[in-house]
Amino acid sequence: MSTQTRRERERADRERLIITAARELAEAEGWDAVTTRRLATEIEYSQPVLYSHFSGKDAIMAAVAVEGFADLAAELRAARTAATDPRQALLGVGAAYASFALRRPALYDAMFTQAVDLPFATPAAPQALQAGFGELREAMRPHAGADDLETLTEILWSGLHGLLTLMRNGRLRTEDHDRRMTLLLDRFAR
Amino acid sequence: MSTQTRRERERADRERLIITAARELAEAEGWDAVTTRRLATEIEYSQPVLYSHFSGKDAIMAAVAVEGFADLAAELRAARTAATDPRQALLGVGAAYASFALRRPALYDAMFTQAVDLPFATPAAPQALQAGFGELREAMRPHAGADDLETLTEILWSGLHGLLTLMRNGRLRTEDHDRRMTLLLDRFAR
DNA sequence: TCCAGTAGCTAGCAGTGCTAGGGACATGGT
DNA sequence: ACCATGTCCCTAGCACTGCTAGCTACTGGA
What we know:
Two copies of one chain form a homodimer. The first copy, chain A, is mainly alpha-helical.
């Protein structure tokens, strides 16, 4: 009995080890550098061990993404609750979102541009993801007026996401980022 | 002399053949299906021929993207010039942009989410790309007011891009697309 | 002490982008 | 008409990818 629980605990530890190694490797050298062989040497096990924990590389990326949702939600929450008025809250949450995406681009990619096999806009979506979206929604609420809050939050999110992905892929000049952020959030704050 | 020009013409023909085959294959089965071997059999040549035209797969995708810019610019222009008033022009251009992205997702991806080695926000950017952005800008102009037109166009573009990529990757419910588009464009039209 | 079960390894498969080298062909000069 | 030249393109192969089959050696229980 006790040996079995110890084994289960060790398995769980190793699973977290895999996720952490994958995230760190991706953040350090990009997802292209995260190969199953490289990841296996990193955790000091052989390749097939990865497949006893995850169905494949995509599942590992999805697990990393789920971790990222929690981090993002926490940062958004901190930014929102630190603000003193609704306008500052919206600006702060927007800035926090941008900061996260720019600071951890590989993680952001796993969360929002790759790893499609996660449930999103459904009740089955990861708790942390819903929490993150909830922070955006609460920051948006005082500015909604007669418009549908949920939809409004979605287009705010889209605006931020578009801005950041286009800039990160070289489609928009980096220098004008702040000006764009200001103008975008001005369209939502009132 | 004449044989040489004939050869050059044949080479140019083959280059366009490669680009067309790559685009069609990508639109039919996605970019994952566009392997150098598959593409080679498609054009009825061996693999190395591809490398006598392009430096690699990325360069082929970039060439496909450049073709796509021209198509998109034409569709945006048609939508803008067909409109009778500034508000309809903006709504029309927005709808045309969305329609393009949803109708040809693989092409859209090559243009805006992959193929990073193209110049974008510089004078060296492809002519067709600048034309497409120009259509957005002209549709935006009557609504700019005191805001910087260029920046405003960039965030409009970002909003559309974010909306479409998030939806296409399953991050937003497809059913609410029209409602989101309306609300987004309402933030820009006045 | 022996046996069953399992955990994790080595080795390999089919596929990827890309390249080296040779062989066949057309071209231009004598 | 013939040969040397140069070009073109194909076969074969490299190093890598994600993933899997099958064996080995260890662990825990009777």
